TrEMBL record:
<dbReference type="InterPro" id="IPR045601">
    <property type="entry name" value="DUF6455"/>
</dbReference>
<protein>
    <submittedName>
        <fullName>DUF6455 family protein</fullName>
    </submittedName>
</protein>
<feature type="domain" description="DUF6455">
    <location>
        <begin position="60"/>
        <end position="133"/>
    </location>
</feature>
<dbReference type="Pfam" id="PF20056">
    <property type="entry name" value="DUF6455"/>
</dbReference>
Length: 140
């Protein structure tokens, strides 16, 4: 049980780091100015590849907002997932932030058709389906 608490704490810290990584480095492209070894160390701490970390640092601070909107449309409680599975939540945020299907996602969110179409393009669709199957993650 102690290892789960420790892992949860680490995952929570990593999730928090993801939320702040762009803010720390994006203003002056400081991340790209670091030597490759330091970039690799930071990426490793975040469980990302160095190239994915650099790509992530280029995204806007609100690049994963669609994920939480999609979760709510699917009646999944984002705060509950973030609390219970911070590592999974962070990984899903990264997938969303780096997604190449944002136009379709935003269009479906706006039209209310997201629940029918997200499985066609969302890189988090399997995780979202698994979360929907767990009653503890469903919103009341």
């Amino acid at each position: 049980m102690a290892s789960q608490v420790s892992h949860g704490s680490l995952a929570a810290r990593l999730s928090h780091l993801y939320g702040n990584i762009r803010n720390c480095f994006s203003q002056q492209d400081e991340l790209r100015q670091l030597d490759p070894e330091m970039q690799a160390r930071i990426a490793s701490d975040l469980a990302l590849s160095p190239s994915r970390l650099l790509h992530l640092s280029d995204t806007a601070a609100d690049a994963a907002t669609e994920m939480e909107a999609l979760m709510r449309a699917l009646r999944i409680d984002p705060p509950e997932v973030r609390l219970a599975s911070p590592g999974q939540f962070r990984d899903m945020q990264v997938n969303c932030a780096l997604c190449e299907n944002k136009d379709a996602c935003r269009r479906d969110l706006a039209s209310g058709a997201i629940t029918e179409h997200y499985v066609d393009y969302c890189s988090n669709s399997e995780e979202l389906s698994a979360l929907r199957a767990q009653p503890r993650f469903l919103a009341d």
